[in-house]
Design goal:
It comes from Insulibacter thermoxylanivorax. It is built from 6 helices and 7 strands; from the N terminus they run αββαββααβαβαβ. The protein has helices spanning 8-20, 55-58, 90-96, 100-103, 116-123, 140-150; strands at residues 31-36, 39-45, 62-70, 76-84, 107-112, 129-134, 153-156.
Length: 167
């Protein structure tokens, strides 16, 4: 009997989605893993700092922000956004709990395309590749441009299906 063996991208993205199940954020559960070669070096998920009530316990801590967006026709438009500031993003936790020496030349698998802040942090972290599943259109263009400028291989895992119950 021949077993179906997952390719490495699928295997590590599955682990990122499993890590995301630890998140207690009701708005977006995100997981991330750090891989050097084929060796798993760390996992993380988004959530409140350790020992602090999370969104499930205390509710989301939403702030309103205004962002200038350039429309397809070239016109600028001010858009009001809400975001939760209670949680630390999965990518940020991954960087907090892994060593710089482990990140040099490594790959990060993350369930969602990094936001602008996380992209900036990852750009300075030593990683050379970021693989994500779900798009985050808000920051997509500027994040892609940053990764190209930094020479970081940045790609979406197309056709990937997360494990049942994790997405």
């Amino acid at each position: 009997m021949t077993s179906l063996r997952k390719d490495w991208d699928t295997y590590f993205m599955d682990i990122a989605f499993m890590a995301s199940t630890r998140s207690r954020c009701s708005r977006r559960r995100v997981g991330a893993v750090l891989v050097q070669g084929k060796k798993l070096l760390g996992t993380a998920y988004n959530g409140a700092p350790s020992g602090v009530p999370d969104c499930e316990e205390a509710g989301c801590m939403l702030v309103e922000e205004y962002e200038l967006q350039v429309q397809d026709n070239g016109e600028e438009q001010v858009v009001k956004k809400q975001r939760c500031v209670r949680t630390i993003h999965a990518e940020q936790n991954l960087l907090l709990f892994t060593d710089r020496s482990d990140r040099e030349g490594a790959t990060v698998y993350v369930t969602d395309q990094p936001c602008w802040t996380c992209a900036n942090m990852l750009a300075n972290s030593g990683v050379t590749e970021i693989v994500y599943c779900r798009e985050y259109k808000k920051d997509q263009d500027k994040v892609s441009k940053l990764m190209k400028q930094k020479g970081i291989h940045f790609r979406q895992l197309v056709g990937y299906e997360p494990p049942a119950g994790t997405a």
